Give the backbone structure.
Amino acid sequence: MKRYNNLWKDFISDENFAVAVNNAVKSKAGKPQTRHFLKHRDMYIEKLRRDLGNNQFHTSPYNVFTIYEPKKRKIYELPLYPDHIVHHALINILGPIWMRIFIPDSFACIPGRGLHGAAMRTMTMMRKHKYVLQCDIHKFYPSLDHAIMIKILHRKISDKRIMDLLSEIIRSGGDGKNIPIGNLTSQWLGNVYLNELDYFVKHKLRWRAYIRYCDDFCLFSNDKAELHRAFDAIKTFLDDELKLTFSRHSIRPTKCGINFIGYRYFPRFILMRRRGTAKLTRRILNIAKHDDCSEHAMGQLAAAHGWLKWACSYNFRRSLMRKVQQTHPSRFVNRFIRKHLFRK
């Protein structure tokens, strides 16, 4: 396996930090801390590069808060400067290296691959197989072992200064375990960690019909007993090699459908999940209730349309429009919502 050394020079370069700053400030231009940073950009970047060169960079204190949708979890927030910029600069260098080792059927948080690509791949497998094994890992990010993570990273990266920086970021999440949800690096590190599982399934078990989206993955087969054996092998591998456990798993006929990455899949069609439709209904009825046709509302409706168009959702949209009309929005807002929900 090829290992990469001499990455520090590219990481610390002016060009890399210029790109990192541009990426880090996207969608944050209106925030006071972003405006202040951009006003003194050259001074801050010069200081940051000097601190990194002298091994004086340390992860800032996290602002930790809890979210409850789609499920309860802790989010760890870091400031734009210096942390987001350092994380973007790292991923500019390491992302292309890691992209080369990811299997084609891993989809989450990888540029050029996304939820809808995963949805189409899932449908292809649903149509070809009678049974599916679906697994979800228990508290994935909080369970990631720091020592195992660093050991995995060492297999591809031999540059000591880059590894020291990665170790600093990894160990900032807790005592021995936990990769903080909210960091750009966490998405990539999670994929690198479970890439070990991908290789085990693909190369050790020689399993073709496999798809993973973050910590949720499926194996497909026409032999139910074969899926039971695969589950036992994967469980042992996760216990022994990655120190992870399952929160749930099931083996069922594909004709009964599966809940996976936001939709409910059947061999011939895709439906919205109940939780997703309830959340979307609340959001759109709130727009109707407040006669909201702002840019923010337009963005929410565009997102709703993007979500609905991949599923068999015509009847749901008609039902939703009836509920909208019962809230008595203005005629303009009624047309505004209908236009976005039913556009092609």
User: Anything to note?
Assistant: Strands lie at 63-67, 73-77, 131-137, 210-213, 216-221, 246-253, 258-260, 263-265, 270-272. The radius of gyration is 23 Å. The chain is about 55% helix and 15% strand. The first strand starts at residue 63 and ends at 67.
